Amino acid sequence: MSLEEAWNFRLLGHDPSAAWGGGSLVEVHKGHAFVGAVGGSSFNSAEGFTAHDVSDPRNPRKVFEFLAPPGVHMHKLRVVDGEILYVNSERLAGERGAAGRAGFYIFDISRPAEPRQIGFRNMPGSGPHRFGVDNARKLAFFPNDAPGWNRRVIWTMDISDPLKPEVVSIWGLPWQKDEGAGVGNDPHPAETACSLHGPPMIRGNRMFAAFWGGGVIVIDCSDLRAMRLIGHVKWSPPFVGSTHTAWPIGERPYLVVTDEARAKQNYWDSQFMWILDIRDETNPLPIATFFPDREKYFHRGGRFGAHNILEHIPPDGPFANKVFLTYFNAGLRAVDVSDPLRPIEIGYYVPACPAGQTAIQSNDIGMDERGLLYLVDRWGAGMHILEFTG
Predict the structure, then answer these.
(1) Cα 70–213–266 angle (5° rounding)?
(2) How high is the pLDDT of residue 97?
């Protein structure tokens, strides 16, 4: 059992009950943390999500839980316009998901300790995976199956009325197009499968998206109904696929990209964090990588490799040019990307391994309006509330 490791982070609070121990994604709003559960996906817990009062970060407490209906995986959630929570409803693989309803739930969280379901939006195939919400633009982006496309593509929705989301466009890579029904309903694609992972995001008139086995995409989204591919880069093979997140560094012409480590196998020389140069948008180029000390973490058990980042790299302020990266058994890493050619680690937090857990599996990271960070683990350690002191 490993002990806590901390550099430039201070632990304020811990709630092992978050998502029944196994968290997938965390959103914090109005002093409450909402945590989607990985459920049976690499952890033996309930499917659904939990809500926690974190107004006192030193004493977080669970105030609500929602159990998913049979056949449904509910592990991704996003706050919409301050009063609404979207929660995905992804059908479980195979026969287990036969009775599942694909789409997303709509909850009223005007009273955040008492979420109340007020709607459901049906979607085809297996349902959306890691979706994104742009509250400023009143848009949501869903990786989802669609007729005529192979695997998941970008569903852009107008959420001006969050109770009645409307499809603006469905867009995929040209080589995903299929004249027939397409290949869908695949919640666990192979590393080589070209399938949107997400979430896509917009900066200016450009959209950036990570396609699982398909690489990183730069899209002209000046007209959301007629989006156009501008640039594309793919490094698998020779590297393993599972490209997870692509996010710009403030307003600079660089992207931070992660390749998700999978549960099947750890790779000594793959599935880490990349920096991409997009000064020439038609030819995005990898220019640097980052990964923690492999000798220290590789053989600890569980996944060793990148997963997600805090989806907020502002152009100024105390968090400018700082990337907070979850790295499964290497915990949370803080990386300074001021010089994109030389990412430098400036802090880390690896939670203590609880009894009965063989390794930490840090899965996602969120932030509240106070600048506090919320780290969730997918293997039983729950949620840790942290202050970055670097």
Answers:
(1) 80
(2) 86
Domain limits, the chain: 5-388
On the 0-12 / 13-18 / 19+ scale of CB atoms within 10 A, 329 is buried
Which positions ≥6 away from 167 have C-beta within 8 Å?
A: 155, 156, 157, 158
Predicted local confidence at residue 7, as pLDDT: 98
Query: Tokens standing for 59?
Result: 């004493």
Distance of alpha carbon 210 from alpha carbon 200, whole angstroms:
7
156 close to 125: Cβ distance less than 8 angstroms: no
Residue 9 tokens, joined: 């982070």
Token representation of residue 351: 């939670």
d(CA 214, CA 233) in angstroms, rounded, equals 8
Distance of alpha carbon 171 from alpha carbon 180, whole angstroms: 16
The average pLDDT across 156-181 equals 94
Average pLDDT over residues 166-187: 84
pLDDT value of residue 42: 74
Q: Reduced to 3 states, what is the DSSP secondary structure of residue 243? A: strand
Q: Look up the CATH number of domain 5-388.
A: 2.130.10.10
Asked if residue 43 has pLDDT above 90, the reply is no
Residue 250: predicted pLDDT: 97
CA distance 106 to 118: 6
DSSP SS3 for 117: strand
Cα distances (angstroms) measured from residue 230 to each of 271, 278, 280, 322: 25, 11, 10, 27
**Distance in angstroms (rounded) separating the CA atoms of residues 219 and 273:** 21
CA 28/CA 51 separation, integer angstroms: 9
